[in-house]
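Hi Y.,

Following your request, here is the sequence exactly as I used it, all 178 residues.
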Amino acid sequence: MRSLFLVAVLSLILAACSSQPAAPEQPGAGVTEGAKIKVETPQVAPVTAGNQDLTGLAALRDPKSILSKRSIFFDFDQYVIKDEFRPLVEAHARFLVANAKMKMLIQGNADERGSREYNLALGQKRADAVKKSLMLLGAKEAQLESVSLGEEKPRNPGHDEAAWAENRRGDMLYSGEY
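Below is the corresponding structure, written out as tokens. Let me know if you'd prefer a different format.
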């Protein structure tokens, strides 16, 4: 008798907890007559340089376009993007947002000082810093890949401060360029 009572109580509890799917909301339901609903869709601002629209692929190769610049240089032993390179990162982020099918490879580089392992780690931190900045500005993670080349791909083969400064960089390459 007791078990029959428990089964009945549990059945009632389960029945009370069951839910019905909500009926689809009717357009205008809950809106008083005369009320207007304003829906705004976000707009992506095209990358511009002067009067020039830079959402097209030609902007990537136009020397007058900021998008033709693809390197971000870092201070010694640092992976923080300097203020002078923020407009460049912002322009590339806007381009990626406007061209959702484009993909970018970010290569982090270091100068020859430091061990191979250290330079690989520093190069990765630099590439990841650029990637994170682009994502914060609207680029999708699926569009971006970051890798470290460490000291293996120097832009300048010299062994002085000027050469090292050129080699401490993050390079942004688009699909078809790598």
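DSSP finds four helices and six strands in the chain.

Thanks again,
Q.
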